[in-house]
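Hi C.,

You asked whether I'd gotten around to modeling the 155-residue construct. I have! Everything is below, sequence then structure, no commentary in between.
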Amino acid sequence: MAKSCDHKSVGMLVWQSGKLLLIERGKPPFGFAPPAGHVDDDTLFEEAAGRELREEVGLESKELQLLTEGRKDNHCRREGGSWHYWKIYNVEASGDINRSKNETKGVDFYDLETLQSLAKRTEKYLKGDIPDSDWEKSPGLEPVWYEWFKELNIL
């Protein structure tokens, strides 16, 4: 049975030497994104942030700083998942990266130039210039993260 969407999501921005930690999603929605996930009914946003960071990249959150929050229309693979209320955190993290091979194709730190390049690919995808099959093989930024990065003046 498909899990229902709780419409609450967290995203964690982990910076290192001016580079941002991104995963390449191994499951829909495809794209490059910071570690992120659903809050689920039994946890607070902050608890979910720590859990998702551990699950996706193996890091421990030491300190969370709320950057922004708000509702975004974005689809997920859960039943009814067409929008989410997000809380986005800057995270000071510790440990060694150990990515989830189930949820990610890869993980790395990306500089602003690479983020801009990924954003340009996302813009082409959103205009319909890149078909879904090509996007899945070689995505840009996950569209919801393209929006957040614009709002946060990262792009």
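If it helps when you're writing up: The CA atoms of residues 42 and 48 lie 9 Å apart.

Thanks,
B.
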